[in-house]
Amino acid sequence: MTTIRAEWTKLRTVRSTWWTVLASVVLMAAAAGQLAIYVANGNTNDDPSDDAGVVPVGTVLVDSLELVQYAVLALGLLMITSEFTTGTIRTTLQCTPSRGRLLLAKAAVTAAVTFGLGLLLGGAGALVASPVLGEWGAVPAAGTLRDVVALAAYLALIGVLALGLGAVLRSAVLTLTVLLAVLMIVPVSLREPDINALHRIADALPGEAGKHLLAGDGQPYPPVVALLLLAGWAAVALLAGRAALHRRDA
Amino acid sequence: MITLRALTKRFGETTAVDELTVDIGPGRVTGFLGPNGAGKSTTMRLILGLDRPTAGQALIGGRPYRELRRPLHEIGALLDARALHPARSGRAHLFAMAASNGIPKRRVDEVLATVGLDDRAAAKPARALSLGMGQRLGIAGALLGDPPVLMFDEPVNGLDPDGVRWIRQLSRSLAAEGRTVLISSHLMSEMQQTADWLVVLGQGRLIADAPTAQVITGSGLAVRVRSPRPAGLAALADRLTAAGAVVESGETDELTVTGSTVERIGELAYELGVPLHELAAQEASLERAFMALTADHVEYPAGAGGAA
């Protein structure tokens, strides 16, 4: 608990944290607004082929996240990479020599903050998207709530994944590059040749598990499995990070 | 009490710390001395569990650092005053440290007052702090847990003369309270004034572990010799070196000799027929003793681990 309080103190006393939060909210509002405009335009223009009909607002939120998630990921990976760039990792390890306890505390703070931010983003996105959608938007209370909570859970888990990866790689740029590859590039490449086995592998990757969780489509596995897969990836990243912190000189 | 047992750290081919065995005892200021690259900082990082030793052990109060649960109550350390998040204020930095070890917030104000950082300075982002203020902040962090062991790596770096005097007084008073105080430096004059005890390191090995006064006088007083005849002076230097003394030549007409005596050099000069314009014992200095030590790589057997 003391370590968690220390990590929270460190996170909130750096202004860049609040800029990142603000940036992600602005980005979410902009993306949700834009996607809502597309839906409304598609339904009202002369071309019937792009009609989307009435769209649940949750779909707009989930689609917006494709971009917005990287601002939130930055929060998770900066929890650790900034310690290496500034050298404060040595003070941190002096205060908390147990690498496992330190990383768990960082994970708890990251997960709590990104989950809360996810709820905020969901709310902000819905607030912008629903009036723009107007008659073309549906805001079912239960469905929207489910989408927002799933979105927040997804952000919390990939935030922790980013933290663990950052502990291994130590560089923010490198970590973000690897995350981009794992979340987007690799699954797309795996699906390219349309081979069943490769589809299966792609489905197991965290980015795809996130998509299935957010879509809630139950294909190829139910959302609970998607959530567990994501949690598994986050746990593996944390364990790898702990091993790296333990073995390598700080 | 810091206990090092055959502590060894290798980075690839290079051995930074080589089977270092020494006890740093309480109640005195121990100067950790050695040229740059001798392994002082690496040893301190090993003590703090930041680097993993290749072999051997470093213990604080009998336990390895990584096993300490609230380490700030056991040992306080200042390693690198520049290792701060540039955007975080000094006070927030200390708040985070205090929180991690369950130290109440008011203790932060106490240590800030102790090191002489006022509210305005403590509220500044770290990037706006001078190196001297950074050092004071680092020492504030070391004092947070009121630990029985303190360790400062080159604490006088970047300090003005007032700051240097302050560090000296602080170290002395901490030691007088019965704490173990270890201070590394490459500034020998500073160590001579501050440290009661010296641990001298050369190329990762222990060269001396003895009271400061003994290290200074142990290698013999220095003697200054001047003569108008360079050839005669050279002959004198050869004889002295052969007899085991350390001879430095400064100006062409001048030698500085350690490991011999005024009497012995005078007799030798008479024997060789070298006219002398000056033959005088120099004031003993740590700097000279240190040069003699590292030149010979003599081990100091006396007093090792004693008087704790």
TrEMBL record, chain A:
Residues that span the membrane, as ranges: 21-40, 67-86, 107-128, 148-165, 172-190, 224-245
Record keyword RNA-binding present: no
Keyword Protein transport: no
Keywords: Membrane, Transmembrane, Transmembrane helix
A Pfam short name: ABC2_membrane_4
Protein name: ABC transporter permease subunit
Source organism: Verrucosispora sioxanthis
Automatic annotation (TrEMBL), chain B:
Record-linked Gene3D superfamilies: P-loop containing nucleotide triphosphate hydrolases
Keyword Transport carried by entry: yes
Entry-linked SMART domains: AAA
InterPro entries with a match to the protein in the record: AAA+_ATPase (IPR003593), ABC_transporter-like_ATP-bd (IPR003439), P-loop_NTPase (IPR027417)
KW Metal-binding (keyword) present: no
Keyword tags: ATP-binding, Nucleotide-binding, Transport
Xref: PROSITE patterns: ABC_TRANSPORTER_2
GO terms for MF: ATP binding; ATP hydrolysis activity
Domain of life: Bacteria
Domain ABC transporter: 2-228
Xref: PANTHER family: ABC TRANSPORTER, ATP-BINDING PROTEIN
Family: Belongs to the ABC transporter superfamily.
The name this protein goes by in its record: ATP-binding cassette domain-containing protein
